[in-house]
From TrEMBL:
GO terms for cellular component: cytosol. Pfam families: PfkB. This is PfkB domain protein. Keywords: Kinase, Transferase. Coiled coil: none annotated. Residues 23-279 form the Carbohydrate kinase PfkB domain.
Amino acid sequence: MSLLTVGSVAFDALETPFGKTDKIIGGAATYITLSASYFTPTNNLVAVVGDDFPQSMIDTLVSHGVNVDGLQIRQGEKTFFWSGKYHNDMNSRDTVEVQLNVMENFDPIIPDQYQNCQYLMLGNTAPAIQHQVLKRLTNRPKLVVLDTMNLWIEIANADLKSLLKDVDVLVLNDEEARQLTGDYALVRAAASIRAMGPKTVIIKKGEHGALLFHEDRIFAAPALPLEEVFDPTGAGDTFAGGFIGHLAKTDDLSFDNLKRAIIYGSAMASFCVEKFGAERILNLTQDEIQARVDQFVRLSAFSVEM
């Protein structure tokens, strides 16, 4: 089934205990679409870049089957840029520099050929922009997945809560779930979020896995223990891409398949952290992905003898 992703395509400059980069391709929509490309053949993108964004990077997206008809290129303007430095524990980071550039006035234009998308991934941008996308779609998608962050919970809370009424799945981390609800207990926080609109809530817990809340059921997905985490940038977006990519491929929204989608998303995220930026997820094979999923299965499989 067709997938539409709306979000940022950007430049990142990264520094971790393992080294540093100059400007490399980044942005939420970049990671989401690259990750989803391993699952669904109809992978549409709406984003904006400046005329400083290299054609070679656009070609990289196209080579992965991403339809870039919805990628605006603003002449005379610069692409969104983020620079960050990670601490030794790799769980915390400092933002060194942010240049909003074209994202400051991003107006998401939906091409006609995207209008009948069945699956919509609203990558992390301002809630007002995300809501605009929904309003501009002629037909409501079968599934709308929303990613957000602590910044929008803090400065655009009313816009975010209005948007939540119109989405099916909310993806956020544990700190953000607590911030949004004011409740430290994640089970209660998820229930509060579901009361705001989303039928399904996914709470990411970094190196401790992810929690899926759907109706009255909960699924806890493990994180794969890795010897080294090289660069966690984009891991959450890569997770989201694997998650919605699997759902778009299978067109099955049952609880059991949501659980499988969580595992596929987690597998994709585990690849992402192994190298800088999106480098690791550019050249995966289906055999590699399935082998990584099998690792997740073995990690949590057990039997009970009575």
